[in-house]
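Section 3.1 - Work completed
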Amino acid sequence: MDVPPRKQAPGQPAKRVPISEIHYDENNPKTGTSTVATSDKEAKDATVKSAADGHTVLIPQPHDNADDPMNWPQYRKNVVLFVITCISFLSDYASSQGIAALVPQVAYWNLPPNTIQHNLVGNIFCLAAGGLISVALASYFGRLPVILVYQCLALGFGVWSGAATTFESYLAARILQGLTATVGISSGLMWIKDIFFFHEQARKINWWSLGIIASPYVGPMVASLILWRRSWQWCYWVLTLLSGVCIVLTVLFLDEPFYNRDVPEPRPYKGTRLQRLVGIEQWKNRHVRGSFGQCIIRPVIAFSKLPLALLIVYYFLNFAWIISVNATVSIYLTNLYGFGPRELGIFYIAGILGTLIGWFVGHWLHDMVAHIYAKRHNNRFEPEARLWVTYPATVIMFVAVLLFGYALQTQWHYMVIAVLFAAQVVGIMIATVGIDAYLLDAYPEGSGEAGAWTNFERSGLVRVFGAQAGITGASILVIIFLQVLGKRLRHAQGQMKFATN
């Protein structure tokens, strides 16, 4: 397929323009696109809708139907993206609060730290498993009602976590919270694919990933500052307030984004917004989504695609160390440098700055790399071009993790540790967007399932930083393999065969 120009065009269709040629991916014509500027004498009889620049072809082509989310005004799409990002942010924010609360909970529960950390491990594992369940349910019952119900459950479990009077009760609440709080992270790609055109998606993924990657650092920072003056329970009262705000935003601004483009006109009545919010209308029109069994099996079908499975391995080999460093850095800083809650809270600003740097670089980097690739390949674009950004990202993470472990061992100045802490986050931010953009380009029909599997591989804890650096460096072999053979693998295995896209 062709790549759009670096200058991002507004998503709203402006006019119909003649085209001289459209290059389609032979295996997946639905993702083909063209940005070839044409003259009238080159024009053929076919016309397609373009963006406001007059030559970026809109993929997918929006229908002449007000119910098509691709026709939503740009401001409405951006508001939806903001709300989805906020919901995604709360997932790891809620999980990572347990890191900062570890020390006061040891005294409160009168239990050893290893036992207290069971709540973090259980929460992280359920974040992974819950994401796969949520996208399967969203494929059948609808995106909107599932994301609303999951948020309401997560709010309830957040209240339970703060009100728990025994560790066993607290542990159960944290596990169940993990199962439900993951809905934003796991289904975010699904929403981006449903409402944004192909040429917009990389930058929208970059915005969405900003909330995801920043949240594990904002969580401990806020929790540490709360613990400076208040008890650990207040961490969950603040979380409850934030969850309530996201539920209000969902009710006010989100709508069902699923639109089956294979259904002929006239389409079934869309129903009222209230009916869509509670899932009544989605249930009435469930025949356009596939059977319940077909929806439940979608994550398994997605995992059977070797390019996706290999990228999950690459992501696991890198994001596991992000979790490991984030989960243990407070212990090292407390024991080696004498940090208190206030100092720990301030230290986590380094992770937030790393996320912002990665987002700022990625805002132009991902489209620039795609543009350069297309220019060198006769205006053709393949999803594997998205993976080039993982090379510098992997090098950054490799160096950061290796030096981070050495800096702790030799007790370098804590500001050096903060810089290395931030550098690792820069790398994972760039790599995350590149991977998600690749999966969305390669398997648009399985956007939710691809996002859920990458979320699944965010779980994992390892201790030896030298081994982490070695595995991070070796993981780049997965990217090399995909860039050399990825296209052949995708074509050999074909697209994900679902009842609906």
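Second construct:
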Amino acid sequence: MLGLSVPAVDALLENLRRSLALRILAIPPLPSNSEASTKLAVLFSGGLDCTLLARIAHNLLPLDQEVDLLNVAFENPRVLKAAGNTSDPAVTGFSQCPDRITGLKSHAEMQRVCPGRQWRFVAIDVTYAEFMSHRPQIVSLIYPHQTEMDLSIACALYFAARGSGFVRSGCSPDLVPYTTSARVLISGLGADELFAGYTRHATAFARQGYEGLADELELDYQRLGNRNLGRDDRVISDWAREVRYPYLDEDFLRWVLSLPIWEKCGFGQPEIATGFLNHDENPLLEPSKKLLRLLLWKLGMKFAAAEKKRAIQFGARSAKMEVGKTKGTQIIS
């Protein structure tokens, strides 16, 4: 059974640490006349993939190096309409977005497990009017991709990469405007495709076992470049920032692809009967991306290790911004 004691957990740490070090330890210093000091930011939903990268980065970077955690949330008219009339003002705000809730919880856990560093949580709130004003630019940037799903994913990355939001100033509860000075952004792209993080991977295993899952993972891996990388790079670099992908490092990929599938995920493996909070040797975790979950658990981030997978467009609520029936495969009008 895949548990904390399997050698693959420690091997994952070493290989991912090496990949991440190449991408964050040689970032050029900011201009000498700049008052800003942050060189690195993480595209941060608070989920498993990005939180693991931030956690390992803590072991690599000097403590005095600040890290910005960019967390985006959208004002979605469709969601607000579905909520109906309510006396709770928070329902109409950004605080109810799933990624905002998860992001704040993971940020708090990061501060507790990795003290001594300034982890700056940047709350990036995008109103519907602002989304519409930037929509033509985003549609232009993602071309030749042209589906509603492409747009919903890209707009989340676009506004996250802009890096303009609000942060807490010191111990005060008040939020102040802030724009990150980081030119290098870290992304968790690739983790789902390599470690079986999507619902369709569970479906493939249920239907055809490991053979079907292997075929599905191979398909996802082969189309990553065509489906994701060009589109995402264009919307992020539009803000003169560079995104780096530790999970897609060639040496890291070579190692992951050499692993048997049952060492990457927990599908088909017996579950422990006890609750995960009370069982440290073999914690009860989601089978998807279980190897990543085990490593993050071992590094002390137990909340984030147990967090369920949620696509960026649903976590940030950038999907289906228009009221009415829209499918992700529909061509942008």
